[in-house]
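lol so apparently i was supposed to do this last week
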Amino acid sequence: MSLQDITDRIAKAETAAGRAAGSVKLIAVSKVQPDERVQAILDQGHRCFGENRVQEAAGKWPDFTAQFPDVDLHLIGPLQTNKARQAMELFSTIHSVDRPKLARTLARLAQEVGSCPDLFIQVNTGEEEQKAGILPADADAFIAECRELDLPVRGVMCIPPVDEEPALHFALLAKIAGRNGLEGLSMGMSSDFEKAIALGATHIRVGSAIFGERVRPRE
Ligand SMILES: *Cc1c(COP(=O)(O)O)cnc(C)c1O
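anyway here it is w/ pyridoxal-5'-phosphate bound
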């Protein structure tokens, strides 16, 4: 599907939900995509991208940002504390803050550097053992803890379980955001972003629908 098709679908979903045009930010998820595909999307004028690994982003983005200084990079994958400093240099926004140790590290570095990316708290709405994210029952306390650390918490993020109705998870995430006075809702991917927009998403993370299927490099 072309970038234009996706932006048309976003506009339709915004209108259908009675939301303002342009109220949803499209994060084009470029992880493991070949450079030519990324270049093509940049050439069409899109500037907001998502990566799930710090290392991969550090390898591929400096050349692109030299060409396009207004690129806006979002980290959407798990963050190890020993990569936090590098992540803060590369990304405008981190969507995967999910544990106290990481929050404390980010707060310490933010003090040291004098700035901090916008932060989203990742919530494990499906309570899946293998998945990152704070449990829904612990989310309010963790958000409060991050605020006490003076971290710029802008919203919450979730990745619904693959085999469940995503709308239930989007609604739960919206509820957590609402009761904590957070405006940002990072939810919705290629297969479900219209549902996410209907339920209030402010940031959608769309990969394969824009770039085509991911070709995983052998590891
Ligand atoms: C890969 C990824 C996406 C994009 O997934 P698609 O199904 O390709 O749109 C969105 N969010 C996260 C956290 C991801 O890791």
